[in-house]
């Protein structure tokens, strides 16, 4: 499947580098070389590609969240692994999410209404909900309700994280109603190739994800969402072949991880996950990690997170493990939500007593799905799932699910970061030379430009949520 090369339309409309002249804003930001009425399929392709790149890319994944949750570590230029960030270092998720994602998807909704194509509208709402979810999970309170009406709200208010989650659940329910397999076809879909039934499953999987995100704070809302899903028939992602993911191509449309390792050599596997996988005889170790270039006693060697640059370099570039070749391949997929995650979520819902399903059986199926996702043999899967080290503990479901979900989400830094904060497992040790007084980051800090360009709303959010620091606990993160 080939990517369409398109200008990212309307991408500067929501940068928030705005004046008070609302009526002039759109005119100033028009690209004279762009079509006044963009094509829906081009907008869809562009929004998917740009958001997947942002999700799987350097700033929000490799250089932050993958380090926080100790999937990866840094062997050179180790400041990010020590939690040293300015308020400009973590702004790419914000700027790209709003300008290339939400703005384009809002336009796609408008085009869908003009064309009478509810499937474009439904798909746009699903993707927009995912982008908003990434933003609120990372930053907390964010512009949501007013962010879709730029002419009316140049400086949008920040909605509380609770209100964002509740709003996204309503948006996804609405998207589910919009999506109709018998309706008009869509083009430009580089996730599911226009298969609307799979988009309906994707929407429901996101609803399930959010229902658990709020379960420790708003369990009655969680119950209501589960009841709605049941009443609607609630089809969910049911096989690895149905995973919501972007399958990359060769350069220049290669996976961002592959693109980075073509020219840089800053990253290694974290000692935390390498040692964990080895202790469990986990067959994913040689998939997640590459053998050391030089022969070493253990073959797969991670380095501790958050070392000083000199101490990290002493481990040696040729004596430590890069991520596995699976992840370094140009065509490696950017997974958004997997069958394994859906099964883990169902297992947790059962463990919380919110369904009549068997939590232990679903936990086992989730592990099997993750192993199958990476082509592990049936014999190895059987041996692993029978191992005493990974058996389900009904007395501490958060620990059992937390550890295995952390492994299954390898490479999905932002989602793994959210789930680690929610489940509190695995119990990670902060960076060796970390700068947060023995703490691990709990959020992204807001972009610096928000303080000057949307200052009043920024200050209101900080006053309500807590200091704009890496260590401020977000609403959903109940300790």
Automatic annotation (TrEMBL):
PROSITE patterns attached to this UniProt entry: PROKAR_LIPOPROTEIN (PS51257)
SUPFAM superfamilies referenced in this protein's UniProt entry, alphabetically: TPR-like (SSF48452)
Family annotation (Gene3D superfamilies): 1.25.40.390
InterPro entries linked: SusD-like_2, TPR-like_helical_dom_sf
Protein name per the record: Starch-binding associating with outer membrane
Native source species: Pedobacter steynii
